[in-house]
């Protein structure tokens, strides 16, 4: 009897220990699960903050690039328009100069008709004579005979 009673007490104590150990392991598991979830939540929040910071930085850089490209395009367009305006001014100036030259040539022709014809003919005949030079003969090379 004595041993039976001790046996029952020990068995009851063992069951209580099992129950408390199961309860404590369940609590420990729950605590670990909550701790892991908290770490995951903290990591997720940190990643979201990093993502938002990087996103805003990239948007800022993109906006700066867009603004610099717009400014560059404005400068290019302005330079192109200035170049076109300069070309138009140059063309107008050239046209007016050509008209003035034509007017002065017409005035000169009207004032001195056919006085330069003799000099022009002499220059033309001198030019044609210089182009009619004879071929120089090569020494030591026999000429073909025409007989």
**How many discrete structural domains?**
1
What shape does the CA trace take? rod-shaped
**Element-level helix/strand string:** HH
Uncertain spans, ≥5 residues at pLDDT below 50?
Answer: none
Straight-line N-to-C gap = 167 Å
Give the averaged pLDDT, no decimals.
80
Radius of gyration, in Å, reads: 55 Å
Number of strands: 0
Supply the number of helical segments. Answer: 2
Estimate the helix proportion, in percent: over 70%
Q: What does the largest sheet look like?
A: none
The fraction of residues in strands falls at under 5%
Biased composition (Basic and acidic residues): 84-99
Region (Disordered): 84-147
Biased composition (Basic residues): 100-109, 131-141
